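Chapter review: from sequence to fold.
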Amino acid sequence: MHCFLTFDGAPDSPHTEQVLEVLDRHGVKATFFVEGHRIPGAEALLKRIAAEGHGLGNHTYSHEIMLPMSLEETRAEVLLCEEKIYRAVGQRPLIIRPPWGRLRQDQARMLMDLGYEVICWNISVRDWEAVDGRQLADRLLEKACPWMVPVMHDAVPVVPDALDLAIPVLRTRGYVFCRVDQYV
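The token string follows.
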């Protein structure tokens, strides 16, 4: 069974660093979906994510809902984020997660024409509602399924504690942790 940990909203200091420390302690690689507007001033953190072997995905520049955007606006959002990621780490993302997981079919086709694979999730743990790491870990463990792609947010303060609790349990259940971008 596979677990593809994904985090939306990167980079977000100091929380991203805390997530990275937990992932490193457990030898887990994950995928971070980057909001372009968060990159200025956080280039070193983005480089650290990539240098530690984690995947980077595009989460648009401004994190606005894409549904009402024209194709031109969508393209501009995506390409601006892509350029910011490239300038910071020297690599272009191959995957994209639309904000809120919502986009139109014509937008999806346009993203694929740009070379992107659209990645959503199959587990939402609503991490922003969790009162502590235990509650969030329990949610993640309850929803665990084969080929799980949970969406979390590295800016949510309880996420590092939840990961510390859930990763060992998932391993005992036979899960292998992988980057989602390595499977598309």
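Two observations follow directly from the output. Helices lie at 15-26, 43-51, 71-89, 105-113, 133-143, 159-172. The domain at 2-183 is CATH 3.20.20.370 (TIM Barrel).
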